[in-house]
Amino acid sequence: MTAPLGADFVVITAVKDAGMAKSRLGPDLDAGTRRSLVIAMVDDLLSTVREVWQGRVVVVSPDPVYDAIAHEHGATVIRDNGTGYNEAITLALDAVRGAAAALVLPGDLPHADVNAVATLLNALTEPGVTIVAAEDGGTLALGLTPPDVIAPAFGPQSALAHASAAASAGVRATMRQFPGLTHDVDTLEDLARVWDRVGEATTALLEHLPIAVPPVRSAPRE
């Protein structure tokens, strides 16, 4: 599947300060390795997005460490003040309010595949909200048509919160599922579950991480 051509959509990803991100990896990885991993995951997500989408992409973060990668992928950088994830997404949504729709993808999805991203972009052609729920009840992707149709509510059980907000707004809410996209990467166990589906940047770090993976990947990433 290909993404809609010429549509006035925006893909948004928000990422925390690289020095503070993925604190749950603290017992397993030193600060420098965590920082490298977070940057690599954002790089892989943007690479996947750019395989199917040549339109606007926005990276919002309080940390300039992501700027080079964002610019490499032709993304616009918005600097937030680091007060919270939803606050960062809201800042980005306000900046693109004139767009027809927005797709919010968290930066810790190095295993997101092109078919999922293209499907979600195509779903933006219909007014309302599209939600990809994580297995723990969080939200892995949020499609908003238009961008201000509901306010972002990422966090525990946010998939239901987003669906409830859509119902309150009287708009369509569609829950989507993708076999390879069931959780984000917060722990080494999460990464081990998707090691053979991450992009090149994250793959380059695998041999330096304390996780057991086979020495040869089973198949190239599509």
Q: What is the molecular shape?
A: globular
How many DSSP E strands? 7
| Strand arrangement across the biggest beta sheet | 3-2-1-4-6-5-7
Strand composition percent: 15-25%
Mean pLDDT, as a whole number? 88
The tally of domains stands at: 1
What is this structure's SSE topology?
Layout: E1 9-14, H1 31-52, E2 56-61, H2 67-72, E3 76-79, H3 85-95, E4 101-104, H4 114-123, E5 128-133, E6 139-145, H5 158-169, E7 173-176, H6 188-194, H7 200-206
Parallel strand pairs: 1-2, 1-4, 2-3, 5-7
Antiparallel strand pairs: 4-6, 5-6
Report what the structure shows.
- The relative contact order is 0.17.
- It contains 7 helices and 7 strands.
- The chain has a 7-stranded mixed beta sheet with strand order 3-2-1-4-6-5-7, with helices on both faces.
- It has 222 residues and is an alpha/beta fold.
- It has a single domain (9-206), classed as Spore Coat Polysaccharide Biosynthesis Protein SpsA, Chain A (Alpha-Beta Complex), CATH 3.90.550.
- Helix 2 links the parallel strand 2 and strand 3.
